[in-house]
Amino acid sequence: MIKKLFFLIFTIAFATAWAQDNKSLQGRWKTISVTDSETFAAYPNDSIVLLDGTKRNKISTQDHKAHVRTTYARNIFVFTGANDFFQYFDENPRTLTFDGNYTVTANGNLTLNLKNLGRIDVKIAAKYYLENDKLHLTMYADRIHPIEYVLERTPE
Description:
The chain is α+β, with helices and mostly antiparallel strands and about 160 residues long.
């Protein structure tokens, strides 16, 4: 009887902890900084620093910075209570990049089962944690190096 009671208490405590993690993730988040293997970019001050040490000419550097601005700069992430996930290029709802669902697993791990713009299935592993009201999201798509976002909650 004591074992059953202990198991019940443990199960309720675990379910409550999971629900809090899942609930804290829910909402609309905008990018305030992003880092990949080549670049650190901070917004809204629009500073972009190249990290990879690659020698680039002025035009190549400008092209790379423009790529970062259009690809990552103003990304919006939405996690719903129904475990739906949406990623937009920017604030415009017509700029949907990915949509699908997410599953929260142990230790701040996420699995994102998505469709991209071409409606091709994409599965992305991710990790997250919250610190100082900021969502730190690391996404491991089909890349050698992950993309690390720092996101700020915005009104829906």
